[in-house]
Amino acid sequence: MNEREIVKLNYFKKKRYLKREMKIEITEKPLSVFERLDPKIIGFDPKIPLFFKLPDLVTLEYSTDYDGTDYVIKIKVGNIGFAPSPEGVLVYCNAISDVYHPGVNEIRIQKTYPLPMLNRGDEYDHIIKFPLREMHAKEVNRFHLIVDPKSQVLELDEDNNEEKWYW
C-alpha cells in the first residue's frame, strides 16, 4: 500500500457483475513547484524566485574554416544564466544531407561532446572537425548545432540552444 494513499476496496456482487467502490484519502500535502525541482541543480529557497536559480547555456559564437582535409567548426558555448550548469551537458553538431529515398529523408554525421561545469558568465571553446571526403560522399548541405539537445538542464530560455547554417 502506498504511503501517500489509503485505499479501501469493497467488492459487491450484483446481478452477475462485480462493482468496485474506491475511497482515496490523501495523507500528505502535495509538493509545491519548488519542491518538485531537483535540489542538486538549483537548491530550494522559496524566498528567491526561480528565475535567479537557473543556468542558460547558449552558443555565443561559431566560425567555420577549412584545414587541409577537414571542415573545421570553432564553437564558443557560454552560460548567460544566473546559476552554474552541471557537468556533462551534451552538445551535438550534425552535418545533414537531404535524401530522396522511400523511408529515409536525411542522413546525419553527428559529433557529440560533453561540456564541463560552467559558472555564470563562463565560456568554453571547442573545435569540431568533419572530414571533407565523408561530407562530399554523403552530399552534406547544412549543419545543425544544438546545446543541451535532450533538455537535461532546466534553463531560463530553452529556445536559444540551436544554430543552423547551410554549407
Describe, in plain words, how this protein is organized in 3D.
The N terminus is likely disordered. The protein is 8% helix and 50% strand. It has two domains: 47 residues, no CATH class; 112 residues, Immunoglobulins (Immunoglobulin-like). It has 167 residues and is mostly beta strands. The chain is globular, with a radius of gyration of 25 Å. Strand 1 and strand 2 form a beta hairpin.
| Count of DSSP-assigned helices | 3
- Kindly state the percentage of residues in helix: under 10%
CATH structural class of the largest domain: Mainly Beta
* Beta-strand residue fraction: over 45%
Q: How do the helices and strands follow one another from N- to C-terminus?
A: EEHHEEEEEHEE
Strand order of the largest sheet: 6-5-8-9
Cα gyration radius (Å): 25 Å
Domain count: the total is 2
CATH architecture of the largest domain: Sandwich
Gap from first CA to last CA:
59 Å
Shape descriptor: globular
CATH-wise, what's the superfamily of the largest domain?
A: Immunoglobulins
CATH topology of the largest domain: Immunoglobulin-like
Mean pLDDT across the residues is 78
Number of strands: 9
Low-confidence stretches: 1-17
Report the biggest beta sheet as strand number plus sense, adding barrel if it closes.
4 strands, antiparallel
Q: From the helix content, strand content and strand pairing, which structural class follows?
A: mainly beta
